[in-house]
Design brief:
The protein has 462 residues and is α+β, with helices and mostly antiparallel strands. It has 3 domains: 276 residues, no CATH class; 113 residues, no CATH class; 59 residues, Arc Repressor Mutant, subunit A. Helix content is 39%, strand content 19%. The strands form 4 sheets. Strands 1, 2, 6, 7, 10, 11, 12, 13, 14 and 15 form a 10-stranded mixed beta sheet that branches. A 3-stranded antiparallel beta sheet has the order 5-4-16, with no helix packed on it. Helix 13 crosses helix 14. The radius of gyration is 30 Å and the shape is elongated.
Length: 462
């Protein structure tokens, strides 16, 4: 039997991080606002209301994303009305730059080997609850980007890996709301030898995990139909997370006719070359390029380089530190292990706290010059959240060099732990480690275990 060949394409939606909605000045904090408070006649589609000029911040963000995806940005495009009747869209149509007669914002891109058919901008409908019938218009009119790929993927795993890279890349320009997650429609078709099955669309998937499972399910379902010589119906399906299967919604023959027409209330958009050039200049280095450069420039291993570049703020922070301290091992360890440890512990991202790179440099300098122990440095770093301080001013963290002071602490620890002392004297090596730990702890982690050991052993012999 000839081999089954899947072909997969994606339509990805993301919320753009703008302060205002697309055609009015209502704020976009739809998650924290009380229902139906971020609204006006425009975004609730009141009769007679007309849209304002499209939000230029949203336009710039779509252009920035398109450029990162290697697209050609078109300099002229028109807004379309996509008609449908549903409670989430009272004016009866959605404004979009997609549709039968439109020119997309950008097209012909390529991102990590997959062709980008087009990218465009549109407004989000309201949130409608089919059970209660309630509609919340806070979301209505929020700017959405839609990215359409060519059907260039061959497997669900490839899609998942690509999407993870896409999300990381989008996070570098902070243009798409990461908390809103990813929403996608997936097109899947399979062929076997000369036989090509019809294309099936699975709609409204909202996590990479669901996308992966839906694709795997469809490939299996369609392959079986081809093998049994049955017809694959061209249709739209939905994926049920609970059942782990896709279910038919409607066949393409009865697909909605959106009656696209150009919107007479919105002008033809012209984007001049200078605007595109200015946006291009401000784009950051792409994550996969950054990984390659980090490996080459700083001689980092793949794993450390990928951790450092998995967040642009961390990557930038690392580069600020490495400018001042040339010890790559020390800097990469303290950024990827220690700094990330305290950020994770506090459930914060770097941009949510204040860690001055100068303070971090001083801290690492003090470790390098052995002015403080590593343990004391870790303790100090814990206190860097929510805001850092000049570590050289913190005398209480400084390493104890004075032998008589260590001697005093050792004596106290010996006195408090008679059982461990007698075990040690009986030849239990573990007890020594325990006692060393106790001394280090009692010193506020300012005593270095290397200076503790000889003093402690000497005292134990008495
Ligand atoms: Zn509004």
């Amino acid at each position: 039997m000839p081999k089954i060949m899947p072909k997969i394409g994606l339509e990805i939606h993301g919320y753009l991080t703008t302060k205002e909605k697309l055609f009015c000045l209502c704020p976009t904090n739809y998650k924290t606002a009380i229902a139906n408070t971020n609204i006006c006649p425009i975004c609730t589609g009141m009769p007679g209301s007309k849209p304002m000029l499209p939000n230029s911040e949203a336009m710039d963000k779509v252009i920035a994303i398109s450029l990162m995806l290697g697209c050609k940005v078109n300099n002229k495009f028109m807004w379309q009305r996509k008609h449908y009747n549903w409670p989430d869209m009272p004016k009866g149509y959605q404004n979009t730059i997609s549709g039968a007669y439109s020119i997309p914002v950008a097209e012909h891109g390529n991102f990590l080997g997959i062709g980008i058919t087009e990218a465009h901008l549109e407004e989000d409908p309201a949130k409608w609850d089919p059970v209660s019938g309630n509609v919340d218009y806070n979301r209505s009119g929020m700017p959405l980007i839609e990215i359409v790929t060519d059907p260039g993927f061959l497997s669900a795993d490839q899609v998942a890996e690509w999407l993870n890279n896409l999300l990381l890349t989008l996070s570098y320009i902070k243009a798409v709301d990461p908390d809103a997650g990813i929403k996608a429609d997936v097109n899947v078709s399979v062929s076997m030898g000369k036989r090509q099955g019809n294309r099936v669309e699975v709609k409204n998937l909202n996590s990479i995990d669901s996308i992966k499972k839906a694709i795997d399910y469809e490939i299996k379902r369609q392959s079986r139909l081809l093998e049994e010589d049955k017809r694959i119906v061209k249709e739209t399906r939905t994926y049920s997370d609970e059942q782990g299967i896709t279910i038919s919604m409607r066949s393409k023959e009865e697909a909605a006719d959106y009656r696209f027409i150009p919107d007479p209330d919105l002008p033809t958009m012209e984007i001049n070359k200078k605007r595109i050039e200015d946006i291009k200049k401000k784009l950051p280095e792409l994550p996969h390029k950054k990984v390659e450069r980090f490996i080459k420039e700083y001689k980092l291993d793949d794993y450390t380089a990928s951790i450092l570049t998995s967040n642009i703020d961390i990557a930038n922070f690392f580069e600020k530190i490495i400018e001042k301290i040339k010890n790559v091992k020390l800097v990469s360890t303290w950024v990827t292990i220690e700094l990330l440890r305290i950020l994770n512990y506090n459930k914060k991202s770097l941009h949510e706290v204040y860690v001055n790179p100068e303070h971090f440099v001083k801290l690492l300098n003090m470790i390098e010059s052995k002015k403080i122990t590593e343990l004391a440095a870790k303790r100090m770093l814990n206190d860097f959240i929510p805001s850092s301080f000049d570590p050289s001013q913190m005398k209480e963290f400084e390493k104890i060099e004075d032998k008589s002071e260590i001697d005093k602490i050792c004596k106290e620890v010996i006195e408090k732990n008679p059982a461990a002392v007698s075990d040690y004297k009986k030849g239990e090596k573990k007890s020594l480690n325990f006692l060393i730990g106790e001394v280090v702890k009692a010193s506020g982690r300012r005593a270095d275990s290397r200076s503790v050991v000889p003093i402690l052993i000497k005292l134990l012999k008495k």
